[in-house]
């Protein structure tokens, strides 16, 4: 075994309006994004270019803002649609409304768009959306009624704690964990 020096890091590219546009389109081809999230991604590239090449940060920030505004006008960036899609996806995976709110806020989606997305999610979901998400979370993690019957009592407190850490309130967590079987989750409790 030879002692090789670590590979040299590539120097970041110097940002130009064309480079930023190419980077933005490449990012949007791969990921859905809010306007603020795309702005953050592009500004990280700008900051690397500032450190490596002495690029004027204010000028590059203007290019980023103009690009994001142009994409909003063209319909490539739509925070309302992004919030609806992301909220639905997170809900199906078992995220609580609290967790959905936090994740959307972390991506730069405004409070009004988040509230509207959660209202639409609530309208589209039969019954309590948090209960449905808690059941999906329990199914994915094999908690409560999705756990073998002989191990349920020994793991009850852990299951409640896992649901609590995922953002579900105690009543919802207890309702899921104490259900006799998966079909009984909606029938138990309040």
Textual characterization of the structure:
- By secondary structure, the chain is mainly alpha-helical.
- The chain contains 9 helices and no strands.
- The longest helix is centred in the N-terminal third of the chain and has 19 residues.
- The radius of gyration is 23 Å and the shape is elongated.
Strand fraction: under 5%
Order of helices and strands: HHHHHHHHH
How many helices in DSSP terms? Answer: 9
Q: How would the global form be characterised?
A: elongated
* Spatial extent as radius of gyration: 23 Å
What number is the mean pLDDT? 93
The major sheet is characterized as: none
- Unreliable stretches (pLDDT < 50, length at least 5) are none
Give the total of beta strands.
0
Q: What is the first-to-last residue Cα distance? A: 66 Å
Helix and strand content put the structural class at: mainly alpha
Q: How many domains make up the coordinates?
A: 3
Roughly what percent helix? 55-70%
